[in-house]
Every structure is written in structure tokens, then in C-alpha cells.
Design a protein that fits this description.
- The structure holds three protein chains of three kinds.
- By secondary structure, chain A is mostly helical.
- Chain A is built from 14 helices and two strands; from the N terminus they run H-H-H-H-H-H-E-H-H-H-E-H-H-H-H-H.
- Chain A is globular, with a radius of gyration of 20 Å.
- Helices cover 39% and strands 23% of the residues of chain B.
- Chain B has ten helices and ten strands.
- In chain B, the strands form two sheets. A six-stranded mixed beta sheet of chain B has the order 6-7-8-3-9-10, with helices on both faces.
- In chain B, a hairpin with a 2-residue loop joins strand 1 and strand 2.
- Classes of the chains: A mainly alpha, B alpha/beta, C mainly alpha.
- Chains in contact: A-B, A-C, B-C.
């Protein structure tokens, strides 16, 4: 309770932030009434990527362990929806999907604790590929089909579902960042050995953070499966779902919750635009943008803005914006 | 394929103890840390070899030896940073070998590292406060803040509070690490080369700090290369060479021990 | 018996090609510290170049080596000199560089794959290479596969001789063990890193030419080879060339044996091996 107070009402900035989030969510709640029929689906995807990117930032951004497992959690959510969606209300199956992703991440976290640096990254990369191939083999072997149909919902329902996940996640992440748990994660990112020797249970902190970050990804995966109407391993565990959240987070910056959100808005809008206007060149341009982001924005868009402000204050113009 | 065999042989070798005989080590009655039969191997190299040692309540125990003697490895075994191959360590009668460093810290054992490991993106206050917050479970933020202030005064870091941690002089970085370890409210603190790389004035300050820590009721185990310091402040000294414990005694006894003199002066090491 | 000999030889063929692929990735990671996710794309690029030579210019597939190797070498060298060097400059430390390099490599993967898809389309591509078989004992073995095996083994031997006997090879091994020390001893570390990245690309190109002789491929099959290379490299130990060869043959045999039983299960088994291995022995069989 005290934590909630400090996170949202302690100081002017926290209050402004709290009301800004509430207003944003309320606005988002009513927006679909005013736009085109396509708008809810578009926004649902933006929010989905925002959730995935925020989730990545929560674990990898803080601890420095680069995870490429987003696709594994997202796909787990999609498959839960495919299996249970026709019998259960979407809210229930989303909760189960979140729990399933939490469980997968918790298990993976426990067994991969020893891995540091690039080994952890390889493991998480391999995990998504393994689930893809394994489920593919399993389906063909035992069901003689590839993929499953998913009961479809209308776009507005799905939009509200992911919006709720987003709101809950945001209201959990902000206090968490300020809590002892968030502090422990910061310590791990800055010096894991030292953190362990002053009494931080680094093992449990990492595993829990990894699992907590996986849950909402599973939930949005379940929701978005219903808009596609069909899942197969290549859709559910697509590599892009592992890399997009990382790039969005890097683009936006990992030091605040706004970075990943801004990253998701910009990147998904770009993807959507390119897909509609230049479908042939979409992937190539997208690849170039990815490389450019890594090269030009190592500290994210907020880092770039900070640098520009700092240069203005010092009284001379920055010649190359990205050169931080 | 021969490499595969080597790996297998190594693992086999790690399984048995390798000590000449079973340890008959009987620790002192007021020992707080007792290590029995400690052995640690890295591949084919035995870094710590059948070491028995004890740390007695309230003393300053010096751990010396040439580079590569296994001093830091021994520290890492005690603090739980490295798993032990053979042997046991007890702390106040509780077996701590096999526990994680955070559990050992909660039992009241603090340590520093040879190369100071601070949190670079936090300020000095927060660096110390982390120790206060996590060193003892369930401590309130207010209490942690008060204790942090006390420790800053105790160690004497007031004038550096505004500086960024990576910009601090080496001596202060090391003191900051000591301060964070102290914030966990340990009963025993292990200092790894607190004085290496410091100038004579800074060494004097560091010696004063160690004495002050001990007068606060904390038992000290320290690795040190600065002989002037170790001879002046230690109650007892133990000497490691090639992973084996070769001498133990008061500073005077150690200074006159022919084997120790041989190692330091005759030096094939 | 027939099955046994068939597994023995075909596993060996598969293993030798895998070893080449993995050696390339390992050279790139071992020195330049780049886990190149775009590795497989250069394999497929070389395969397409060879395909064009064979089908359009009616040359022998061996000419593929002469064309693909310089092309991939130049592209890889330039990539390291421009892109990865800059990534290194902006990364705070080695760990951050490895993370950023993986992401940058993914961007390259995306670009190269889609350029190839635009140019060559997404249909399965293949050509006929020595379409007759040789009898070894009771088993029929494809003559093309035997040639592939021979070339792959020769390249492996040549590469190891290069590493152990030449000045440049020794500099590369020194840089792999301790870049800072090597730099102090007068090794031009940035050039060596770029060269290693390019040499890794050359090995990929060789593997690509051989793969085009041996099996059909598509513009999107590159990632499959990349992941196999990653698996082998993890199996053998990051940075260990001998480990890459050993791992390549192990995976070749396991892969061929499993595919006899159930071909769809092969990749799952590969990933399972690597996931388990990472947990049990993260530094690989030959890792230091």
C-alpha cells in the first residue's frame, strides 16, 4: 500500500504520471467509437507489441540478460487459445494462457540460471525454434494437420481484452520498478556478484522477473490468436515476435516505461504502413530500419532527446543526433 | 577424442579428495568460521588444497601468500561464490558450504572483492543503502536510510557523496565496498586486498578503518599484500602457498618462520 | 547392413558440410565475437550463385567456388568494417556488443533474405549433379554426395593447416585467445577481426556451393543452416574449431539416423540436444 502511494502519489512527477496513465487508458477506452472499423485491430496490435516490448524491458532491460524468448511465450498463449478458446470465455482462456507462459518461463528460468551472456541468449533463441519444430512434428504426427482453427472474436472485444492486459501490466510494472524487487533487478544488471553478496537472492529475483514478464505476453498472444482465426507453429513462434520487442525497446529506450511504448507505436505504424503501401519492399526496408536503429540510437529515442536537450543547454547544436 | 578422455579424467579426479590423510583438525572453542579439508580444483590445477583454518571471534586474521596461492579462491569458497569440491565450512556452528552467497550474507558474513564491485549507475548513498535494505530481511526504507547515514559517517565518505561512483579514486571505491558490506550488519567481514594500489597515506587510513571495524565488534579476515599493514594490525596470520596452508601464528612468528621467508625471498613463485 | 553403411556414409557427408558451416560461424564468433544470425543467408546466396552458373551459363558447379567466395568475402569484410565496427564503438562493453551484434545480424538476415527472395523468388531450387550412384558394399551411395564429402573434408583440412601453419592463421588464433594481448604483440586486431568475419563468410560460401550440389534449397532455408551451425558450435564449444568439426559430425550422424526414423523429428531432436547441453555443459564438449 505504501509502495502504491510512493509510486503514484509520492511527489509531483509521480502524480502527473499516474493521472496521465489513467487519462490515456480512459481515452484509449473510448477511441474505437470515433475511428474507422480498422482502428480497433490496429490499436490492438500496437498495444500487443507495447506489452511485449515492456515485458522484455522489465527483465532484459534491467538485468542485461538479452532474452529472445518473447516468441515462445507469445506462441504458448496462442496455442492455449487454440486449445481452449472454443470452450471457455476469452477472459478465462487468456488468464490460463498467462499462467501457462508464466509457468514455462519459470521452468526455463530455473534451469538456465547458470547461463550468462551470450549463452542465455542462444538458449532463449533456441527455445522458440524448438517449440516451433516440436509442435509442428507433434501436430503432423498425431493429428495429421499443420495448425489449428481458433474461434474468432470481433476486433472490438479483442481490443478491450488487450487494453485491460496493458493497463494491468502498466499498473503492476510502475510500482514494481520502485519496489525492493525492482531495486534488486537494477542491482543484478549493474553488478550481479556484488548484489548477491549483499543479500539479494539473485536466483529467485531473476526467475520471478522472467516469469512475471512472460505472463502478459501469453495473455496478449491468446487474444491476438482470435483475430487471426488460425494458428500454426510458424505463426505462433515466428522469430520476428522475438526480435521486434527488443528493437522497439532499444528504439524507445529501456530506462522508462514510455520508451518501449513509443517504440511499439512507431515500429508497428511503420510496419503497417509499409505492408500496405510497399508490400514488395517491406521486409527489406524494415531490415534497414532495424540496423539503423541499433547503429544510431544505442540509448533509445529518450536518450537522443536527452542528448539534444543537454547540447542546447550547453549552447551548441548537435551535428549528428545519434552520436551519443 | 583424446580431449574427451581428458575431460572425463578431470571429472574423475575431482570426485575423490586427494588429501593425504583424513583431517584431524580441532578448532578453537571461540572459532566463528571453521573450514575443514577445503579443496577446490580448476581443471587440472588445485587452487585450494586440503586447507583447515579457523577464524576466532573478535580477531583480525591476516591471510597472506604469493600471487596465485589460492587466497581469493579461499575467500570465494567461504562466501559461497564458488562451490567447494571437498570439505565443509561452518559459520557459528552452522554449515554454510553449499549455501548461496545471499544466504551466507543473511547469516552475518560480509565481504569485499579484490577489484571493487560497485553499482556504477547508482550514487554512493544508494550503493550503501542496497546493503542495508537487502542485508537483513524486512528492513523498512526509513531504517535503511538512517543506517546508511551512520555508515557513511563511520567509514568517512561524507565528502564524496556528490561524485559519480566510476569517478571515485580507487581508495574510495574500495571504502565504498567496505561500507556496503558493513551495511548488511555482518558479524564477520572478509576484506580482499583492501590496501593494494593505495599510497602510504591511504594505507594508514585503511588500517585505521580496519581497527575501527574490529572495535565495533566485527571479526575481520583479510587478504593483504602490504606487509607493513598486515604485521601491524593482525592478531594472527595464516600463509597459503600453492593452495596449501603452510604456516600459522602471530605476526612475529610468521616473520621469523623460515618456510615463509623462503617463499617470499627465495621465491620460485 | 545396407542401412548401416548408408547411415555411416551419408551421415559423414551431412556431418562434413555441417562442420564447414559451423567452422565459419565459430571463426566469426571466436575472434570477432559476433554470433552471426545471417550466416545461413550467405550459404544460400552462394547456393543461388552456383545455381545460376549451372542453369544459365552451363558451367560445372565447381565454378561456383570461384565466383561465390570472392563475392561473400567482399560483402562480409565490408559489413564488418562498416556496420559491426560501428556497433562495437557504440557498445558500452563486450557483453553489450555481443547483444547488439546479434540484433544487427538479425537486421542483415532480414535484408539479405528478402533481397534474395525478390531476386530468385521463393520456389524450391535445385539442379542435377552427378545423378548416379556408386555401390559401396551392399549400399547405393550417390556419387555427388561422395564428391561433396571429399571437397568438404579437403576444405576442413586446408583451413586447419591455414590456422596452424601460416602467419595469419597464428595471428588469428592469438587474437581468439586474448585480443588485448595479441594487439600488444603487434597483431592488427581490427583488421584481423574483419578478416575473420570475412573468412567465416568464405566458409559459408563453400558450404553453400556444396549444399547446392547435394540438396534442394529455397530463399528462406538459410535460417535452418544458421541454427544448425549454432547448435554445433554450442555442442563443440564457442570458439573451438576442433569442437566445430567434432560437433558437425556428431550432429550429421544423429541427424541422419533420426531422419531415417522420422524426418520431421530431426530438428526437434537437434534443438533438444542443444537445450539440454547448454544446461549440462554450457561451455561445450571442447570449450575452454
Amino acid at each position: 500500500m505504501e509502495l502504491l502511494k510512493r509510486s503514484f502519489f509520492g511527489g509531483k512527477a509521480a502524480k502527473i504520471q499516474f493521472f496521465a496513465i489513467i487519462i490515456a487508458i480512459v481515452v484509449l477506452f473510448f477511441v474505437p467509437n470515433f475511428g474507422s472499423a480498422y482502428l480497433p485491430l490496429f490499436l490492438a496490435w500496437v498495444i500487443t507489441y507495447a506489452v511485449m516490448s515492456l515485458a522484455w524491458t522489465l527483465f532484459s532491460g534491467k538485468t542485461g540478460y538479452v532474452s529472445l524468448a518473447s516468441a515462445a511465450f507469445y506462441g504458448t498463449g496462442m496455442y492455449v487459445q487454440a486449445a481452449l478458446g472454443s470452450n471457455l470465455p476469452i477472459v478465462v482462456s487468456m488468464i490460463i494462457a498467462a499462467a501457462a507462459s508464466f509457468g514455462v518461463a519459470f521452468g526455463i528460468g530455473l534451469v538456465t540460471l547458470r547461463l550468462r551472456g551470450v549463452y542465455f541468449t542462444i538458449f532463449t533463441f533456441g527455445l522458440s525454434l524448438f517449440l516451433n519444430k516440436f509442435i509442428h512434428w507433434y501436430e503432423v504426427k498425431f493429428f495429421h494437420t499443420k495448425g489449428h482453427m481458433v474461434l474468432a472474436y470481433d476486433n472490438l472485444t479483442v481490443y478491450y481484452c488487450v487494453l485491460v492486459v496493458f493497463a494491468i501490466f502498466l499498473l503492476v510494472v510502475i510500482p514494481m520498478n520502485k519496489s525492493r524487487f525492482g531495486l534488486a533487478l537494477d542491482c543484478i544488471g549493474q553488478n550481479e556478484d556484488s548484489a548477491q553478496h549483499v543479500g539479494v537472492n539473485t536466483t529467485m529475483t531473476k526467475v520471478l522477473a522472467f516469469a512475471v514478464s512472460a505472463a502478459p505476453v501469453g495473455a496478449v498472444g491468446a487474444a491476438m490468436a482470435t483475430t487471426i482465426g488460425y494458428v500454426d507453429p510458424d505463426i505462433a513462434f515466428k522469430l520476428l515476435a522475438s526480435f521486434m520487442p527488443v528493437l522497439m525497446a532499444i528504439f524507445g529506450g529501456t530506462h522508462s516505461v514510455y520508451g518501449p511504448i513509443v517504440g511499439a507505436i512507431v515500429f508497428y505504424s511503420l510496419q503497417d504502413y509499409l505492408l500496405r503501401e510497399l508490400p514488395g519492399a517491406y521486409m527489406i526496408i524494415f531490415g534497414c530500419v532495424m540496423v539503423a536503429v541499433i547503429l544510431l540510437m544505442p540509448k533509445g529515442i529518450f536518450g537522443v532527446i536527452d542528448t539534444i536537450i543537454a547540447r542546447r543547454k550547453r549552447g551548441f547544436d548537435g551535428e549528428v543526433i545519434g552520436d551519443v | 577424442m583424446s580431449d574427451l578422455n581428458e575431460i572425463l579424467l578431470e571429472e574423475e579426479a575431482a570426485a575423490d579428495c586427494g588429501c593425504d590423510e583424513k583431517s584431524t583438525f580441532v578448532p578453537d572453542a571461540d572459532a566463528v568460521i571453521v573450514g575443514t579439508n577445503l579443496t577446490k580444483r580448476f581443471g587440472g590445477m588445485t587452487a585450494v588444497d586440503c586447507v583447515d583454518f579457523e577464524l576466532r571471534e573478535g580477531e583480525i586474521l591476516g591471510l597472506i601468500g604469493p600471487n596465485g596461492a589460492g587466497k581469493s579462491t579461499l575467500f570465494n569458497l567461504v562466501s559461497g561464490f564458488l562451490p567447494i569440491d571437498v570439505g565443509t565450512i561452518t559459520f557459528n556452528g552452522v554449515k554454510i558450504s553449499g549455501l548461496n552467497p545471499d544466504r551466507i550474507c543473511h547469516l552475518g558474513l560480509g565481504r569485499t572483492f579484490q577489484a571493487a564491485k560497485n553499482f556504477p549507475d547508482m550514487n554512493i548513498f544508494d550503493n550503501i543503502r542496497i546493503g542495508a535494505l537487502f542485508g537483513i530481511k524486512g528492513k523498512s526504507y526509513e531504517q535503511a536510510d538512517i543506517e546508511t547515514e551512520e555508515i557513511i559517517k563511520f567509514v568517512g565518505l561524507e565528502k564524496y557523496l556528490k561524485m559519480a561512483v566510476p569517478d571515485l579514486p580507487l581508495a574510495i571505491q574500495k571504502q565504498l565496498e567496505v561500507a556496503r558490506a558493513l551495511a548488511t550488519k555482518p558479524t564477520v567481514i572478509m576484506l580482499d586486498e583492501l590496501m593494494a594500489g593505495l599510497n602510504p597515506a591511504e594505507v594508514d587510513e585503511a588500517m585505521a578503518l580496519v581497527r575501527k571495524i574490529r572495535s565495533g565488534g566485527i571479526t575481520v579476515l583479510m587478504i593483504e599484500h602490504v606487509m607493513k599493514a598486515i604485521m601491524a594490525i593482525c592478531d594472527r596470520i595464516i600463509v597459503l602457498h600453492h593452495g596449501r596452508l603452510i604456516a600459522e601464528g602471530t605476526p612475529d612468528e610468521i616473520a621469523n618462520n623460515p618456510e615463509v621467508i623462503e617463499i617470499y625471498l627465495g621465491g620460485e613463485a | 547392413m545396407t542401412l548401416f553403411i548408408s547411415i555411416l556414409i551419408n551421415g559423414c557427408v551431412l556431418g562434413s558440410v555441417y562442420a564447414l558451416v559451423a567452422m565459419g560461424l565459430n571463426t566469426q564468433y571466436g575472434v570477432a565475437r559476433i554470433l552471426n544470425i545471417a550466416h545461413g543467408e550467405f550459404i544460400i546466396l552462394a547456393a543461388f550463385i552456383t545455381l545460376d552458373l549451372v542453369t544459365k551459363n552451363h558451367t560445372a558447379p565447381f565454378v561456383g567456388f570461384a565466383v561465390a567466395i570472392p563475392v561473400v568475402f567482399v560483402i562480409s569484410f565490408a559489413l564488418h568494417r562498416t556496420l559491426y565496427k560501428r556497433v562495437k564503438d557504440i557498445s558500452a562493453n563486450d557483453g553489450a556488443f555481443e547483444g547488439n551484434a546479434i540484433l544487427a545480424a538479425f537486421g542483415i538476415y532480414f535484408i539479405v533474405q528478402n533481397l534474395m527472395q525478390t531476386h530468385w523468388g521463393s520456389a524450391t531450387a535445385a539442379y542435377q549433379f552427378m545423378p548416379y550412384s556408386v555401390k559401396i558394399g551392399p549400399a547405393d551411395i550417390s556419387a555427388g554426395n561422395l564428391v561433396v564429402l571429399l571437397i568438404a573434408v579437403l576444405i576442413c583440412i586446408a583451413y586447419n593447416l591455414f590456422l596452424s601453419q601460416t602467419r595469419l592463421g597464428k595471428a588469428i588464433r592469438a587474437a581468439a585467445q586474448d585480443p588485448a594481448a595479441a594487439a600488444m604483440l603487434g597483431v592488427r586486431i581490427n583488421t584481423i577481426m574483419a578478416l575473420c568475419f570475412a573468412i567465416g563468410g568464405v566458409l559459408a560460401a563453400c558450404a553453400g556451393v556444396l549444399i547446392s550440389m547435394k540438396e534442394p534449397f529455397t530463399s528462406i532455408s538459410g535460417l535452418g543452416y544458421t541454427t544448425i551451425a549454432i547448435i554445433i558450435v554450442v555442442l563443440g564449444g564457442l570458439g573451438s574449431v576442433k569442437g566445430a568439426i567434432l560437433g558437425g559430425f556428431i550432429l550429421g550422424y544423429v541427424g541422419f539416423a533420426v531422419s531415417v526414423y522420422d524426418s520431421g523429428f530431426m530438428l526437434s531432436v537437434f534443438y533438444l540436444i542443444v537445450l539440454v547441453l547448454l544446461i549440462v555443459r554450457p561451455k561445450g564438449l571442447m570449450g575452454r
